[in-house]
Amino acid sequence: MTKLLLAVALFLVTSVPFAYASQDRASFGGDINIPEGQSAGDIACAFCSVHVHGDVTGDVAVFMGSVTVDPLHSVAGDVAIFGGNLNLAHESEVGGDVAIAAGNANLADDAVIRGGRNIMPGRFWLILPFAPLIILIGIIWLIVYLVRRNRYQFPAYPQGRGV
User: Fold this and answer.
1) Which stretches in the chain have pLDDT values below 70?
2) Which of 54, 94, 111, 146 stands the most exposed, by the fewest C-beta atoms within 10 Å?
3) Domain ranges across the chain
4) Exposed (0-12), middle (13-18) or buried (19+): which is 56, by Cβ within 10 Å?
5) Closest of 91, 118, 94 to residue 104, by C-alpha
């Protein structure tokens, strides 16, 4: 009896989260389009853009791309963009928070963001994820420079430098 209850509990726990997973969208390098009259759950996109012609019931996360929401449509959850812009058209809305780094929020006069806004414009933020790598490369270059400087002696001029 306990094995049967355990199997039923395991089935319910694993099947409920995947019931809505068919609406989620993810892409790497190819744009995501939500057609008119359709809705999508959570959206994750890297090196691509999201075009919302329908509605989004979840969150949107974009790396190096933009999010465009058509008039009279909405994103119910949060929007996070790194290296791109948020474009909200006439009477479109974002129900949650908006976080943008290295991009801008282009809003129509009657577009609405219900949650908080954290927008860091400027392309300087694009190098932030690569800062540890840049520091590491600098340290390696310095070590190589110091070792080579002490290892290889420059030839001495037989008559001095001035002649």
Assistant:
1) 1-21, 152-157, 160-163
2) 146
3) 23-151
4) buried
5) 118
